[in-house]
From TrEMBL:
The keyword Transferase applies. Residues 29-285 form the DNA methylase N-4/N-6 domain. One of its GO terms (biological process) is methylation. It catalyses: a 2'-deoxycytidine in DNA + S-adenosyl-L-methionine = an N(4)-methyl-2'-deoxycytidine in DNA + S-adenosyl-L-homocysteine + H(+). Gene3D superfamilies: Vaccinia Virus protein VP39. Keywords: DNA-binding, Methyltransferase, Restriction system, S-adenosyl-L-methionine, Transferase. Its EC number is 2.1.1.-. Belongs to the N(4)/N(6)-methyltransferase family. N(4) subfamily. GO terms for molecular function: methyltransferase activity. It comes from Massilia jejuensis. This is Methyltransferase.
Length: 310
């Protein structure tokens, strides 16, 4: 059922398998974080690591069929999946990337590192107890494109402020030296890096914490409405970055594993149209409260009246 909607988007309480095969509209960006293949399942459930690749491919199939030629798919997954009773990491990520390119015909554009300094220490068994691993601090975010030569990416939409050092370099007209290094692979000329620009091009390492004000608000609404809180909410910062980088105002952004609906919320705030699905009531019902002030907000009367029992 339609849980709620705004002028820009629709949130559907239900399975993505029942929605996206019937969409019939070009998608510019599909951005999601599927449930991780954890051995100890979270409340929302987990697919076994051996079945995970097929699970993700099945979920992406209808979306890829509707992906615009300029469109992208962005997936946040976990690298912290280990072999049974072993400190060796699973290679499911590599198999997933190959399956997406081979079976869905998408092209791998980049492997982003989502560096999270506030990530809890782990893996406990192999880092803290057996001492054969280091604590993890990042998760991979894979970016795929339908057509690399037509992809609707523009790094000018995500420029960052220049560092004080770079700003000072620009102010003095760039480099004041001539240099050749790296066996002539690199050259610095007088005046290099001196042209004024609107900002610095980001690197493909995204340093964002997993907590955000919207996650805190979602937890508060969940408690007030009697629902169970989400165990691993997506921060607003990740979808906000990719939506700005890969889409323009008015284009369609989808998330078929909505969770706490951060992709939809970021799309709403950035003026993109959006569609999201989430089949767990405890997550999607509190999410509606985050959209109350959005233009054109409407919530289904039956959905509005639902309360949890937590």
């Amino acid at each position: 059922m339609v849980a709620f909607s705004t002028k820009l988007g629709v949130a559907i309480w239900g399975s993505n398998e029942a929605v996206f095969p019937h969409l019939g509209e070009p998608i510019m960006l599909a951005l999601t974080s599927p449930p991780y293949p954890l051995r100890c399942a979270r409340a929302y459930g987990n697919v076994d690591e051996q079945e995970y690749v097929d699970f993700v491919i099945r979920s992406l199939g209808p979306i890829v069929k509707n992906l615009a030629p300029e469109g992208s798919v962005v997936l946040n997954v976990s690298q912290d999946i280990f072999m049974n009773w072993s400190p060796a990491r699973s290679t499911y990520n590599e198999r997933l990337v190959l399956a997406i390119t081979d079976r869905l015909g998408l092209h791998l554009m980049d492997r982003f590192v989502w560096y999270n300094a506030s990530k809890p220490p782990g893996p406990i068994q192999w880092a803290s107890k057996k001492r054969v691993q280091l604590n993890v601090a990042y998760e991979p975010v894979y970016w795929f494109a339908a057509d690399p030569l037509r992809v609707n990416a523009d790094n000018r939409r995500v420029l960052q402020p220049h560092s004080e050092r770079h700003a000072a370099l620009i102010a003095r007209g760039g480099e004041q030296r001539q240099a050749v290094f790296g066996d002539r692979a690199y050259r610095i000329n007088h005046g290099s890096f001196g042209n004024p620009t609107a900002g610095a091009i980001p690197r493909n390492v995204l340093a964002y914490g997993h907590q955000c004000a919207d996650s805190a608000a979602h937890r508060r609404h969940a408690r007030e409405l009697g629902f169970t809180t989400h165990g691993a909410p997506f921060p607003h910062s990740i979808p906000s970055f990719f939506i700005r980088f890969l889409t323009e105002v008015g284009q369609l952004v989808v998330d078929h594993f909505g969770g706490t609906l951060k992709t939809a919320l970021a799309a709403e705030r950035l003026g993109r149209r959006w569609l999201t699905t989430e089949n767990i009531l405890d997550y999607i019902r509190p999410s509606a409260e985050l959209f109350r002030d959005a233009p054109g907000f409407e919530i289904s009367p039956g959905f509005d009246a639902v309360r949890g029992r937590a």
